[in-house]
Amino acid sequence: MWQIALVVPKKAVDVFEKCLEPFAEAVSIKRYLDDWLVRGYSSTKPEQTLIESSILETASSASIAPPALTIQLMPDINWVAESVKGLDPISVGKFLVYGSYNDKPRKLHLIRIQVDAGEAFGTGHHATTKGCLLALSSLKRPANNIRMLDLGCGAGILAIAGAKLWKIKPVASDIDFTAVKVATKNIRTNKLHKSIRCLASNGFDSVYIKKRGPFNLIVANILSGPLQQLAKPMRANSAPGATIILSGILDKQSPSVMSSYRLQGFYLRSRFSLDGWTTLILTSPTKLRKS
């Protein structure tokens, strides 16, 4: 396993995390003295010239000096799992998220979720996941027969949150088989294996997803580009008046994502920003248009 590492000021953490994503299978961040250590992990030797070029461009956009880049071959360890050890439990909205490496939390008034990222993403510490948990916390209980889809579920935290919050039976899906494996383990840890169906799917392509839809609550914490591509199938797979929560969107990308969904008849109910990342809460058209 190869490690890509650089140290950046707090204001540039998010942009450099995104900067390393194309070159790594996993990216982690950790406080380092007065700055932040951003590390990427790749099973193949990274292309140093390409990474340096991306760092220069990112540093210019963040108005900072280019950080020093270190690339080294590491021992054969699951660095994604190692990187989350030592993270403190976090309270987000109605939820308390912790890992198996934490002592069991005592805040009994909050809904407790135990999640380990393993080789997938989503411990609840990133601003995008926090945004989705806050969005779920802000919602009134939807009508009976809630059909929830966690699209791009990662470690499964949002499906688990929905199941615990409203005692419902969500569907969780991810294009990555490793994420499905990790999410399934977390679902079982939270004793929700009889409530949540977790499966691999490229967007809405799964036959099971088509069968369970249309959904009246969809959460998609992925990236701006895929979210824009999903606008039309999102409309086709959401019930009239459904609630749609979108995250994984940098603040500057928010107008483009919103434009794609407005073209499909969605309207904005609420939006908020955490650490430079936007979460959108939308409502689907009350009447489905013909494709």
Number-wise, the strands total 14
CATH topology (level 3) name of the largest domain: Rossmann fold
Poorly predicted ranges (pLDDT <50, ≥5 residues)?
Answer: none
Q: How much helical structure, as a percent, in the residues? A: 25-40%
Helix/strand class: alpha/beta
What does this 3D model show about the protein?
The chain is of the alpha/beta class and 291 residues long. The protein folds into 2 domains: 2-79, Alpha-Beta Plaits (2-Layer Sandwich), CATH 3.30.70; 85-283, Vaccinia Virus protein VP39 (Rossmann fold, 3-Layer(aba) Sandwich). The protein is 32% helix and 29% strand. The chain has a 7-stranded mixed β-sheet with strand order 10-9-8-11-12-14-13, with helices on both faces. Strands 2-3-1-4 form a 4-stranded antiparallel β-sheet. Helix 4 packs parallel to helix 5. It is globular, with a radius of gyration of 19 Å. The mean pLDDT is 87.
